[in-house]
């Protein structure tokens, strides 16, 4: 069984550096950004969303913990009184495939309910078929699909 533990400032610093790099890579993979601009654009995005880091109001950044080891991270934001948004869920490479992501999603839904949320949204890159499959199994419904073709 996993548990969610709010990040401290050291954990946040580790998280933010890897998150920026990972987000930049995803945006390049999906064709949204060029390699050259990706890191600076990702830094801008995180600075906008988390101006006070892990202490940014209405943002809840957790370490996903299994047997006293951090196995990943999950970030829930309150968008309104009734709506939350999962900006990030990331299991560290060696902990993938054990069901921890599914457990973390169920736990973050409980957190959302405790905060009074009635809905939680998220974004998944189209090329991330594993995550899309997980979200489908957990009952998340597709609300928008953006498609693109090189011509």
Automatic annotation (TrEMBL):
Signal peptide feature range: none
Domain N-acetyltransferase: 18-151
Database matches in CDD domains: NAT_SF
PROSITE patterns: GNAT
InterPro entries, alphabetized: Acyl_CoA_acyltransferase, GNAT_dom, N-acetyltransferase_domain
Coiled coil: none
Top-level taxon of the source organism: Bacteria
Entry protein name: GNAT family N-acetyltransferase
Organism: Mesobacillus maritimus
Organism placement in taxonomy: Bacteria, Bacillati, Bacillota, Bacilli, Bacillales
